[in-house]
Amino acid sequence: MKRNAFKQILMIFAVFSMLFSSVGCDKNAPAEEKDLSLQAVLDAGQLVLGLDASFPPMGFIDDENNIVGFDIDVAEEASFRLGVKLVKKPINWEEKEDLLNAGEIDCIWNGMSVSAARAESMNLSGSYMKNEMIFVVRKDSDIKSISGLKGKAVGVQSGSTAQELLQKSKIYEDVTVTSLADNVSLLTALSQEDLDAVFLDSVVAYYYIVSFSEDLLILPGNLGEEEYAVGFRKKDQALRDKVQEILDEMRQDGKLAEISVKWFGSDITTLK
Q1: Which residues pair with 179 in a beta bridge?
Q2: Does domain 37-128+229-264 have CATH number 3.30.10.20?
Q3: How far is residue 10 from each of residues 5, 7, 21, 22, 200, measured CA to CA in Å?
Q4: 129-172 pLDDT, tens per residue?
């Protein structure tokens, strides 16, 4: 009896050992996917950057039909240090995440505001610049404050965080909102008196007013502050980390500050 009981115990132990062994050695178990995002860019010899080409001074088309801007200069330097060519691809801003996930661009690098939704859907770099969300009106306008916008026609870029913020604000129900594809079109419409005000990023407004249209002014106050970051595909950790490493180097050696002074007159970057 004792011998039979002992044999039964050994058989049970053997069965459990086989079960655990088969679980640990399942050849059909999916292997962890290797992140080849950085290597893919290096192999291609290029980094494809998606941008709204009507977003001065971050990225825009100049009088000679070249795509220029603060973000473009930073990305050019980063690509040079990475050892690849920068390819600048103008896109429809509303389609940016679809184009990114489809592999048509490697990153979104063009004054892109950080938001909880974007942090969830994309792999973001560290923020490199702060920005206020403000209203611009004509100098001859009777609008002197944000409260004076009640009953007025306000323009905002479609698909932007400015649009999201305006829709959540208390003033949204009191104004008539028009959405256009880019800020330059909005500011042009404002100058032509087709709009009473435009809600947009302060860095864009300051640059546009100084460079192109001194008949506009910024109303006192803002509806919030935001930060800019570079967006990558969620799974592209290796590429994101390498670009971040290069940006950190540019901050430390003064190149990032140099580019900021060129476009803004001072170093307004926030990368630590």
Answers
A1: 156
A2: no
A3: 9, 5, 16, 18, 75
A4: 999 999 999 999 999 999 999 999 999 999 999 999 999 999 99
The pLDDT value given to residue 31: 54
CB 257 within 8 A of CB 267: yes
Size (the chain), residues: 272
Class of 131-226 in CATH? alpha beta
Q: Do domains 37-128+229-264 and 131-226 have the same CATH topology?
A: yes
Angle between helix axes 183-191 and 202-211 (nearest 10 degrees) is: 50
CA dihedral 73, 262, 67, 88 (to 10 degrees): 10
What is the pairing mode between strands 59-61 and 67-68?
antiparallel
Please state, in angstroms and as integers, the Cα–Cα distance from residue 11 to each residue in 5, 24, 81, following that order.
Answer: 10, 20, 64
Amino acid symbol at 4: N
Residue 192: Cβ-neighbour burial (10 angstroms; 0-12, 13-18, 19+): exposed
Predicted local distance difference test score (pLDDT) of residue 210:
82
pLDDT digits (tens, 9 = 90+) for 177-221: 999 999 999 999 999 999 999 999 999 998 888 888 789 999 999
Average pLDDT, the chain: 90
Contact 96, 113 (CB under 8 A): no
Helices (H), the chain: 2-24, 37-44, 70-82, 96-101, 116-121, 161-168, 183-191, 202-211, 237-253, 255-264
What is the sign, positive or negative, of the torsion defined by CA atoms of 57, 103, 179, 224? negative
Domain residue extents for the chain? 37-128+229-264, 131-226
pLDDT value of position 139: 96
